Amino acid sequence: MNIMTLLPFIVLIGAMFLMTRSAKNKQRQAASMRDQMQPGTGVRTIGGMYATVKEVNDDSVLLEIAPGVHAIFAKNSIGAVLQDDEYNRIVHGIEGDESETPVVPDDASSLTETDTPAEKKIDLGKETPAEDKADKGEKAAEAGTAEAGDAERDGKPGDTDAK
């Protein structure tokens, strides 16, 4: 037989070996994690329920789901054994030492603020509403005197109608 005809089979057998090896490794880690369970330890089941271990047997675990509420679970149904601070943070809402975690601001404005004063805004010639009203009053007064001057030149005092 030619080696080229056996090469796909060799690759397939090698891939199967690597996949079963990693699965066995994960099972071994899960078993050692479940062996670490002791009464008083916080756990999360594979269904996502958080509880406290009350009693550990060979194949089962007695969990306290709520104060005074107990349930028996199979050892294989324990998804994770939690550290005390993590369990208290999740279940009771008790935050641990916050000096370890960095403080992240809610918005990006605090990241962009500087200690230097903000740049002065450039005036583009647009008037503010208060200045606009004052300027209109001055222009109206100037227009009134101009019309009065025009009326005097025409010889008609008091007549400011345009011709």
Describe the structure.
- This protein has 163 residues and is an alpha+beta fold.
- Helices cover 44% and strands 18% of the residues.
- The protein is built from four helices and five strands.
- The chain has helices at residues 3-35, 84-92, 109-112, 129-154, and strands at residues 42-45, 50-56, 60-66, 69-74, 78-82.
- The protein has a five-stranded antiparallel sheet.
- A hairpin with a 4-residue loop joins strand 1 and strand 2.
- The radius of gyration is 42 Å and the shape is flat.
- The termini are far apart.
The helix content is 40-55%
List how many beta strands DSSP finds. Answer: 5
Strand content: 15-25%
Helix and strand content put the structural class at: alpha+beta
Gross geometry: flat
H and E string: HEEEEEHHH
Low-pLDDT runs of 5+ residues are: none
Keywords for this entry:
single chain, 163 residues, alpha+beta, 4 helices
What's the topology here?
Layout: H1 3-35, E1 42-45, E2 50-56, E3 60-66, E4 69-74, E5 78-82, H2 84-92, H3 109-112, H4 129-154
Antiparallel strand pairs: 1-2, 1-5, 2-3, 3-4
What is the structure about, briefly put?
Helices cover 44% and strands 18% of the residues. By secondary structure, it is α+β, with helices and mostly antiparallel strands.
